[in-house]
Specification:
Belongs to the serpin family. Pfam families: Serpin. Keywords: Protease inhibitor, Serine protease inhibitor. Strands 4, 5, 6, 7, 8, 12, 13, 14 and 15 form a nine-stranded mixed beta sheet that branches. Strands 1, 2, 3, 9, 10 and 11 form a six-stranded mixed beta sheet that branches. The protein has helices at about 1-5, 10-20, 25-40, 60-70, 85-95, 195-205, 210-215, 235-240, and strands at about 45-55, 75-80, 115-130, 140-145, 150-165, 170-180, 185-190, 215-225, 230-235, 270-280, 280-285, 305-310, 315-320, 325-335, 340-345. Helix 3 (about 25-40) packs parallel to helix 4 (about 60-70). It is elongated and about 70 Å long. The chain folds into two domains: about 1-125 and about 230-275, 2-Layer Sandwich (Antithrombin, Chain I, domain 2), CATH 3.30.497.10; about 130-230 and about 280-345, Alpha-1-antitrypsin, domain 1 (Roll), CATH 2.30.39.10. By secondary structure, it is α+β, with helices and mostly antiparallel strands.
Amino acid sequence: MARLGAEKETATQLDQGLGLASSDPEQIAQSFHQVLAAYQDSQILRIANKIFVMDGYQLRQEFDQLLSKQFLSAAQSVDFSKNVQAAATINNWVEQRTNHLIKDLVPASVLNSDSRLVLVNAIHFKGAWKHQFSKHLTRPDTFHLDGERTVQVSMMSLKESLRYADLPALDATALELPYKDSDLSMLIVLPKTKTGLPALEEKLRLTTLSQITQALYETKVALKLPRFKAEFQVELSEVFQKLGMSRMFSDQAEFGKMLQSPEPLKVSAIIHKAFIEVNEEGTEAAAATGMAVRRKRAIMSLEEPIEFLADHPFTYVLVHQKDLPLFWGSVVRLEENTSASSEHDEL
């Protein structure tokens, strides 16, 4: 949304830093609108966006209309100098749109009279597996935190025909778990070694989702996957600046397309918070922000399914059928005898 109101160097930095396919605001808005509109009435996935602007800053009519039409949202004025009340306004909006899973997204301490703009994205997903895990098959099992430490976790089990891929270039395998009555699925990418996640994450930075999904083929799989639940929060301003998008946070920020007057406007905070829970029934998630592939089509009997044992750190992606990642994270650590995990997520 900020990109639509940006111009000059600020717009250029956002185009490059975000890897946008087009620099045309109308095309950018339309691409996001297609996703938002597709799930506007969905009971499974809900996506909402909001810009909160300091009182006294009037938005241009064209920009406000673009937000309403393409992002299905209108900007809201807030008095950031009353930081406690302003934070409550923002946090209540987020909580209502994430099924009360994301609370206290914005701390009052990050808002003050110098704050000018807060961008908020909220997403809530609750989907049932197309092939549900049987609870009576869930057993305590070992999860390897690294090459030495282990914990006991609740490990779910499933034998089913699923889409699977061997990815030698990533030194990993991948498995797709579809959701019922949905065009969404969870893609799990599992390193072949217990300590392979850091190397996998580095390789994934240079790998597109389509390179992985195009390698998937249907086969019988014996899956073991731990139940997990996690919550994660981060302030993204520093990350954006490291990616070359620093101007938007400075007094030189150019958001001239947003305002009716030449008042200075800059981004004061970009805060991301995520929640995800995976169990036997499905997934509930919320958030408030050349590779050589070998197709392995081995001939095997029904008694010999491919084993996919997620008993060590792995990456997962909540994926739209058109290879659009909606939620991306890695299970790094699971706590002893519980379904809680400590992980890093991004959206």
